[in-house]
Amino acid sequence: MEAEAAKFLGAGLATLGMGLAAIGVGTIFGNFLAGALRNPSAADGQFARAFIGAALAEGLGIFSLVVALVLLFVV
Amino acid sequence: MASGSVIDPIHQFQIIKIVELGQPGGVELAFTNSAAFMFGIVALVFFFLTFATRGRTLVPGRLQSLAELSYEFVASTVRGSAGNEGMKFFPLVFSLFIFVLTANMVGMIPYAFTVTSHLIVTAALALLVILTVIIYGFVRHGTHFLHLFVPSGVPAFLLPFMVVIEVISFLSRPISLSLRLFANMLAGHIAMKVFAGFIVMMTASGVVGWFGAVLPLFMVVALTALEFLVAALQAYVFAVLTCIYLNDALHPGH
């Protein structure tokens, strides 16, 4: 395999991580919404926490985006 | 791609030297468009807050209530995640939040430069936060600050592994804090420009393309709305995580 082709394959594989991070973010907000519908009065207090969790999960997906970008433009 | 010169989603991140300041010690110094935008953002925030709080009235006007809202918003975030003691770091968190928010929002103006889409800028902001945490933690608590890495109630044979994991997680904080903001702004702006490029490509292919270009146009409008949300959200996330890290410096030990 040519090095150039392997680079693009690697970048494409790295983007899979973003889809997996999407599952994590979806789980967080899905569970937050499920909890919020059961007990709406407690939802506002946990709003920031939901976003922190989403930010952390999203950060891991962004690492794989950075891997893809590095493979495409830097290596 | 033949029309690569037309669609270049990376072009918007180019750093342009405005005034070159020579090379003291072999390091190239220049006043760039990035620096110009940062000065502009600081000036914008400075004049906004000065004008908004100049004629203080009991019943606030539009500008004053905007300033009060942003103050209360950040203050409640700091109190919520770092406690009342955390309010001594309010100036730091408020400056970071307003700077990042304004930088993200200014970046949404067409042809404007997005300061936070450069890793070096966000890394400097993240290092400022982490160094504040480390220095304040050691000054305030001395070696007790290291209890941060030793979780309580862990079986003795697990403790060495937990300490290693805690240290790694602490060291990865500045990386994730800076990368999150940088990559969100970078990826969002690239996506917008790529879809805007589709419109140009389709309209270039004749009358049929004009109707086809409606689809990416809707996409660009939707993406722009999403980007405004992301711009505000990432500034908020940056501020909240700063508060949480500062909370570690204020109350180490689990």
TrEMBL record, chain A:
It is a multi-pass membrane protein. Residues 9-71 form the V-ATPase proteolipid subunit C-like domain. InterPro entries: ATP_synth_F0_csu (IPR000454), ATP_synth_F0_csu_sf (IPR038662), ATPase_proteolipid_c-like_dom (IPR002379), F/V-ATP_Csub_sf (IPR035921). Keywords: ATP synthesis, Cell membrane, CF(0), Hydrogen ion transport, Ion transport, Lipid-binding, Membrane, Transmembrane, Transmembrane helix, Transport. NCBIfam families: PRK07558.1. PANTHER family: ATP SYNTHASE LIPID-BINDING PROTEIN, MITOCHONDRIAL, ATPASE PROTEIN 9. Belongs to the ATPase C chain family. This is ATP synthase subunit c. The gene is atpE.
Automatic annotation (TrEMBL), chain B:
One of its GO terms (molecular function) is proton-transporting ATP synthase activity, rotational mechanism. InterPro entries: ATP_synth_F0_asu (IPR000568), ATP_synth_F0_asu_AS (IPR023011), ATP_synth_F0_asu_bact/mt (IPR045083), F0_ATP_A_sf (IPR035908). It is a multi-pass membrane protein. The keyword Ion transport applies. The chain crosses the membrane at residues 30-52, 89-113, 119-139, 146-170, 190-221, 228-247. PANTHER family: ATP SYNTHASE SUBUNIT A. Belongs to the ATPase A chain family. This is ATP synthase subunit a. The gene is atpB.
